[in-house]
Specification:
Elements (H helix, E strand, L loop, with lengths): L3 E6 L4 H12 L4 E8 L7 E4 L2 E4 L1 E2 L11 E4 L3 H13 L3 E4 L30 E3 L3 H16 L2 E10 L6 H15 L32 H14 L5 E8 L6 E9 L5 H9 L4 E3 L11 H4 L5 E8 L6 E8 L3 H18 L2
Parallel strand pairs: 1-2, 1-6, 2-5, 6-7, 7-8, 9-10, 12-13
Antiparallel strand pairs: 3-4, 9-11, 11-14, 13-14
């Protein structure tokens, strides 16, 4: 089997570390691994397959020649600056930021949904990884869409703090510990308000239309991935005091009626989806149970009785894994198998 020289850019962040872990777990054919981060991570060593690999400072590199695949999770500004440089030196970049997602020349990929679009990497040498909340939703939508086209999606998300990075995880932990110990809760630094025991209907910045950037990511990315500009999508994204795992209440309207039983059958048969839907036993997907797993879990499947052809779904996935790192490595696997 051919092996590849792989780079992880943003290697010391929550997603970057998870990318390294997923590469090892899935036994991706890595010939050599390079880790890049900012100056403050100089000298940090991260384990990979029994070795300790030292992190290199991204800004000090003059050439990236010899790298086959670069997994980026270093933020949009660094991606805009460095992804074209990696691509120019021969690497295929799989970027986890929002920088390239809506570029018409850059494919936006969820392997279970639109693997054929990976071929578009040849345009710029860059592939975009979708937003975490979009990824899990479209995986659940795809088998239903293929059975009967989806006309409209209404989604409300309940997103874990890990989606905002390591500092957000620590902020929730510090605030929760202080509350439990009867101490003064530290003032928020990452979030606008206290996140412990609270829900914040505000992820990313507000836009002129009153939606947040996170909400509009879900709208625009869903249309691009599903290759259907006519799907109506509206979203409300909420940060909740959970460490790992995003949950979503998804309401869909289809052109033809899909019964609850048929929806369960379609979802259960689809790659990457696990159905947990036994209301009589109070069994449904929970964020604390899906953490550390790569699949998208679906439950609470029921008809929307307010319209003729509607369904409600509860969709849960690990945002650091399927919502980011695992999806990126799955894209790399398609590249390795079919293109490189």
């Amino acid at each position: 089997m051919k092996e590849f020289v792989v780079a992880v850019v943003g290697a010391t962040g929550a997603v970057g570390r998870m990318m390294i872990q997923i590469l090892e777990e899935r036994d991706f054919p890595v010939k050599e691994l390079h880790l890049f981060a900012s100056e403050r991570s100089r000298g940090v060593k991260i384990p990979f397959k029994g070795e300790e690999i030292e992190v290199e400072v991204l800004s000090e590199q003059k050439s990236f020649s010899g790298i086959d695949i670069a997994l980026f999770s270093a933020g949009a500004s660094r991606s805009l600056e460095f992804a074209p440089k990696f691509a120019a030196d021969g690497a295929v970049v799989i970027d986890n930021s929002s920088a390239w997602r809506m570029d018409p020349e850059v494919p936006l990929i969820v392997p279970e949904v639109n693997p054929h679009a990976v071929a578009g990497y040849k345009n710029k040498g860059i592939i975009a990884n979708p937003n975490c909340s979009t990824i899990q939703m479209v995986v659940a939508l795809k088998p239903l869409y293929d059975y009967s086209r989806i006309k409209r999606v209404v989604v409300s998300t309940y997103q874990a703090v890990s989606g905002a990075g390591q500092k957000a995880i620590q902020e929730l932990m510090d605030q929760t510990q202080a509350w439990c110990q009867g101490k003064t809760i530290p003032k928020p630094k990452v979030f606008s308000y206290q996140i412990a025991f609270n829900c914040l209907p505000h992820i990313d910045v507000f836009l002129d239309n009153g939606y947040t950037k996170e909400e509009m990511k879900m709208v625009n990315e869903t249309k691009k991935i599903m290759e259907d500009e006519n799907i109506g999508v509206t979203a409300t994204t909420v940060r909740v005091p959970v460490f790992y795992g995003h949950a979503e209440a998804v309401n869909i309207e289809t052109e033809e009626k899909i019964s609850v039983q048929k929806a369960r059958e379609l979802l259960a048969a689809f790659p990457g989806v696990i159905v947990i839907d036994e209301p009589e036993e109070k069994r449904y997907p929970l964020q604390i149970e899906i953490a550390g797993k790569d699949e998208v879990f679906v439950g609470r499947i029921r008809e929307d009785e307010s319209i003729p052809n509607g369904l409600n779904l509860w969709v849960v996935a690990d945002n650091l894994r399927k919502g980011a790192a695992t999806n990126a490595v799955q894209i790399a696997e398609i590249l390795a198998e079919k293109f490189l």
